[in-house]
Recover the amino acids of this structure.
């Protein structure tokens, strides 16, 4: 399938080449003829810009250390056994990869490589062209694989629509001077203004700094229980920071899409691709596009629109972003306008009725039984020293609080039938560690201690035999005053009494 420009890779997951030749520059498939003198001048300009800075920051100024709002990179110093511990990426705009290098954000197992010096596109924002390619409509920043006739019918005939947003901190609106300036709220407002006779209900299921793996487990609890008619999914950049492989991403995104349409076959889905200065999402977008092709979901690359705005208006990166990945009000306006342009294209016209979507054969080993269990509703077979609290840091009582211990050696067991087991937990300076094992086997360690506090998730066991297992978790204080907070259990299977 032919993709429109700037999607960072091919729909089948293969890589996009980056070839540089004199007189012809090929960047992510986008070719621009340049005179050699202009190339030299560009390098001079970039050298001067690096020496002099980017110019004044336009928009509000923020401290990217705000808890629970920034994104994550893999911290291999805190990994033990099969778990994946994550820490926030609070870099000030360099687009640093998990390897510590700037610009080259190649990740193990991902489908594409990117270069931070990619020349911005030259299409002026606000202009829209489309091309029909075998039923697929390609706009400047979007691929429309299916019409949204079900959404049209619900808006114009049922006069009622529930729209769900699930993503990370860019969906939450971190970086905007006010949440109302986020792309999420702006698109909600547009729907209400464009269809004043319809009752529009918005569900915000975003959690800053989290990726599609946690979303796969929390989907029912946070979103599907509201029975959304239209869902926006935004995890491409966080999945890059977490360093998921392309195959992992496809499993997670396919599970999410399949769960949505298994719950309601009339729900429309739109993938939203944000990115950072280092173009980290270029590594993950091809995996998303592979699933979008299979499930005929629409997708929109809002970051490409910002690159066009930078080029057309001759603005620095800092005019649109408050750090390396989070937009400010100006950036969110471009994001919102781009998505609204897609909605205008897809919601015009009429619909004669609802059409159920037929689920394709799964491409991956989907985890339809991936479930989030609240600590206050999870039976523990034995418990010595762990207690339920009504709050979990940063998420409050979203999942019924937390299961917490501050007593060294405290232990509990949990019995389940399934293949995978993990936890949502807090890392921070006051966090200790846990030792965990399955069915009396060798213990492994998960260290929660870090320089600042934020929630994250770790899958402790993957690929177990689909049978009954007993998980044992023991708290290790490491030093006085430490504790360990578990915000939820993540189970591919069923917790047993």
């Amino acid at each position: 399938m032919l993709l429109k420009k700037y999607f960072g890779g091919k729909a089948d997951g293969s890589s996009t080449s980056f070839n540089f030749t004199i007189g012809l520059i090929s960047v992510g498939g986008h070719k621009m003829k340049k005179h050699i003198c202009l190339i030299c001048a560009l390098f001079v300009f970039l050298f001067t810009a690096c020496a002099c800075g980017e110019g004044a920051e336009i928009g509000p100024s923020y401290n990217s250390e705000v808890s629970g709002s920034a994104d994550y990179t893999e911290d291999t110093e805190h990994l033990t056994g099969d778990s994946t511990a994550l820490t926030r990426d609070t870099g000030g705009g360099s687009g640093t990869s998990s390897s510590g290098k700037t610009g080259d954000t190649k990740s193990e197992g991902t489908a594409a490589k990117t270069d931070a010096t990619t020349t911005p596109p030259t299409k002026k924002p606000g202009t829209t062209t489309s091309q029909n390619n075998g039923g697929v409509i390609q706009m400047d920043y979007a691929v429309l694989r299916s019409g949204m006739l079900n959404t049209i019918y619900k808006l114009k005939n049922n006069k009622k629509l529930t729209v769900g947003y699930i993503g990370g901190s860019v969906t939450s609106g971190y970086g905007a001077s006010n949440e109302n300036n986020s792309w999420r709220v702006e698109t909600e407002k547009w729907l209400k203004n464009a269809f004043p006779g319809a009752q529009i209900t918005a569900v915000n299921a975003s959690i800053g700094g989290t990726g599609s793996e946690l979303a796969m487990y929390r989907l029912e609890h946070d979103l599907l229980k509201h029975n959304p008619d239209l869902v926006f999914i935004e995890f491409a950049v966080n999945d890059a920071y977490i360093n998921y492989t392309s195959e992992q991403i496809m499993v997670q995104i396919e599970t999410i899409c399949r769960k949505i349409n298994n719950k309601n076959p009339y729900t429309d889905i739109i993938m939203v691709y944000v990115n950072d200065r280092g173009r980290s999402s270029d590594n993950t977008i091809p995996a998303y596009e592979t699933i979008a092709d299979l499930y005929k979901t629409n997708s929109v690359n809002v970051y490409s629109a910002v690159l066009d705005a930078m080029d057309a208006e001759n603005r620095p990166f800092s005019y649109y972003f408050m750090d390396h990945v989070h937009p400010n009000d100006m950036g969110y306006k471009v994001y919102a306008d781009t998505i609204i342009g897609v909605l205008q294209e897809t919601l015009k016209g009429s619909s004669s009725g609802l059409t159920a979507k037929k689920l394709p054969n799964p491409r991956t080993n989907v985890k339809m039984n991936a479930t989030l269990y609240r600590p206050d509703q999870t039976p523990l077979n034995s418990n010595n020293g762990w207690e339920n609290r009504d709050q979990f840091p940063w998420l409050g009582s979203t999942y019924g609080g937390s299961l917490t211990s501050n007593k060294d050696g405290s232990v509990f067991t949990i019995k389940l039938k399934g293949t995978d087991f993990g936890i949502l937990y807090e890392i921070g300076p006051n966090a200790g560690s846990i030792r965990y094992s399955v069915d009396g086997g060798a213990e492994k360690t998960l260290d929660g201690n870090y320089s600042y506090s934020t929630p994250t998730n770790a899958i402790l066991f993957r690929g177990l035999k689909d049978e009954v297992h007993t998980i044992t978790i023991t708290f290790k204080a490491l030093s006085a005053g430490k504790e360990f907070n578990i915000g939820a259990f993540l189970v591919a299977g069923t917790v047993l009494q």
In short: Confidence is low (pLDDT under 50) at residues 1-127. Residues 195 and 226 are 21 Å apart (CA to CA). The first helix runs from residue 36 to 52.
